[in-house]
Write a structure and sequence with these properties.
Elements lengths: L15 H11 L2 H14 L3 E3 L11 H13 L6 H4 L31 H9 L6 H12 L11 H11 L6 H11 L12 H10 L6 H12 L1 H5 L3 H8 L3 H12 L24 E6 L2 E6 L7 E3 L1 H12 L6 H41 L1 H6 L10 H8 L3 H8 L3 E4 L2 E4 L7 E3 L5 E3 H13 L9 H10 L6 H10 L12
Helix pairs in contact: 1-15, 5-6, 6-8, 9-10, 10-13, 14-15, 15-17, 17-18, 20-21
């Protein structure tokens, strides 16, 4: 049974222009240029052009007359688009570049991939047809670091089921030995221990230090990985000087032989283009938006001429003409929204960055990390009047070029911690002191997290041991046992 009823609902919806603005705000400079070029291709009402005088003008009386006609006659009129002095023209490059900016071209070379390099070497070895098949399959299972992660037993099964090749682990071992003789040295190893031993045995094993290094990795690899040097000395009957020399040889080895190969296909290369450029000046700083490669945007004058032509004709009685007019209006609306969204994006970026600049002024003057004040997204939102989510979108994937380096905007955000005197300091200051303590410690007896906690507390920082451990991990500093050296 069907029933009809009236129901009122209160909903919040974003307009298409707001959605477009939000999406553009997240995009960094490197991708905003591509987004603008795509819009230029998709929308013929949008074009590149230099800043000129306003193309279209209209009086206030004419605008009122248009509104009355719009209410009385139909949903829209052509006059709204012809007689409009609100046509936005916006130069993206105006005052948004540095006078010292130089455009440099970065050459890009393309070479063979890591696996192609191995295949070319294997092709020069004397192998039977069956061994070539085994070798190619083994190479296909070698990862980007140069390791064979799959068990030989599983490889035998794979070849039997997938390629109908009957083989044994011994035959696989023979071909694997050939692969382990290829460049880079250490490729085809199944474990880190095997990888390091392959590299050492390629060197002069008559050297006492190399020979001791082979003994350490062969007989005391677990003790070496845990840095139990006393146990190694007792087990191999080495003196401290001999152990130190052997360890130095081991540290020269490459634990990831495949990772050091120049592979333009597998290697992840990230080109960073700053969104902001900060330059010192006599008055303090000059902040610019980096928009040197962005095209200048304006509405296409030909589309306005088309509307004038349609306005002169009696388009009200022709369906085809009305559809053409509606299409032109949609394209002009879309172009206006896009230009306005770009303008709002630029204004929001500058507003947010200026707030960060003022808040962290002491840091930008000297570039000293200890001068950074505790700052969270809420602080910037309160200073700018923007929403926290908007500030988050601005800070995401954006970079600023300063006179002391290029930094991500997220770098300036950090939590705060109170000292004994009640002063609030940034956690970056504590991490800086933590790094200095670790760098200056006695490597024979590294500082434990407990001792680091005591040192910080003596300096007036009320901090718990678990917090010290968290900051140490964030700085990629290993535990005290793994920092031990002879």
């Amino acid at each position: 049974m069907l029933r009809q009823r009236l129901q009122q609902k209160l909903l919040q919806k974003l307009s298409p222009q707001q959605i477009q603005m939000i999406k553009l705000l997240e995009v960094p400079t490197l991708h905003i240029e591509e987004r603008i070029k795509k819009e230029l291709e998709d929308n013929p009402a949008l074009e590149e052009g230099v800043e000129e005088e306003a193309i279209i003008t209209a009086s206030e009386e004419e605008e009122e007359r248009i509104e009355e006609v719009d209410r009385d006659r139909e949903e829209f009129t052509i006059d709204d688009y012809i007689d409009d002095d609100e046509t936005p023209e916006y130069r993206l490059q105006s005052n948004n570049y540095s006078k010292d900016d130089k455009r440099t071209e970065i050459p890009f070379s393309v070479g063979s991939s890591f696996h192609e390099h191995l295949e070319s070497q294997l092709g020069l070895r004397y192998l039977t047809d069956k061994q070539k098949i085994l070798g190619e399959y083994i190479l296909g299972n070698i990862d980007e670091d140069g390791y064979l992660r799959r068990e030989l037993e599983n490889i035998v099964d794979d070849l039997a089921f997938l390629q109908n090749v009957d083989t044994t682990e011994e035959e696989i071992e023979e071909v694997l030995a050939v692969i382990q003789d290829l460049e880079p040295v250490g490729v085809g190893a199944r474990t880190l221990q095997e990888c390091l031993l392959i590299q050492l045995r390629k060197r002069d094993t008559t050297d006492p230090n190399i020979a001791n290094a082979v003994k350490i990795l062969s007989s005391c690899f677990e003790e070496f990985s845990k840095r139990h040097y006393d146990k190694i000395i007792a087990k191999l009957e080495l003196d401290e000087a001999g152990l130190k020399s052997a360890i130095e040889e081991i540290l020269k080895l490459n634990p990831k032989p495949g990772g050091g190969y120049n592979d333009p296909y597998n290697r992840s290369v990230q080109h960073i283009i700053p969104d902001f450029i900060l330059e010192p000046s006599e008055e303090g700083f000059e902040l610019h938006l980096n928009s040197r490669n962005m095209p200048e945007l304006r509405l296409n004058a030909k589309y306005n001429e088309m509307l004038k032509t349609y306005s002169a004709a009696d388009s009200g009685n022709k369906k085809e003409m009305r559809e053409a007019v509606q299409f032109v209006k949609q394209k002009i609306d879309s172009a206006r929204w896009f230009i306005d969204a770009i303008k709002q994006r630029q204004n929001t970026l500058l507003l947010t960055m200026n707030a960060i600049l003022n808040y962290q002024n002491d840091y930008f003057v000297e570039g000293d990390e200890t001068k950074l004040r505790p700052m969270v997204l809420k602080d910037v939102a309160e200073m700018t009047g923007l929403d926290i989510s908007t500030v988050s979108r601005v800070a995401n994937s954006k970079y600023i070029q300063t006179h002391f380096g290029m930094l991500p905007l997220k770098y300036f955000f950090s939590e705060g911690l109170q000292t004994d005197s009640g002063e609030e300091v940034s956690t970056r200051e504590i991490k800086k002191i933590l790094e200095e303590c670790v760098n200056g410690e006695d490597k024979r007896k590294p500082l434990t997290d407990e001792k680091l906690t005591n040192i910080l507390q003596e300096k007036g920082y009320q901090i718990a041991r678990r917090t010290v451990a968290k900051y140490r991990e964030q700085l990629n500093i290993p535990v005290a046992r793994l920092r031990k050296e002879i």
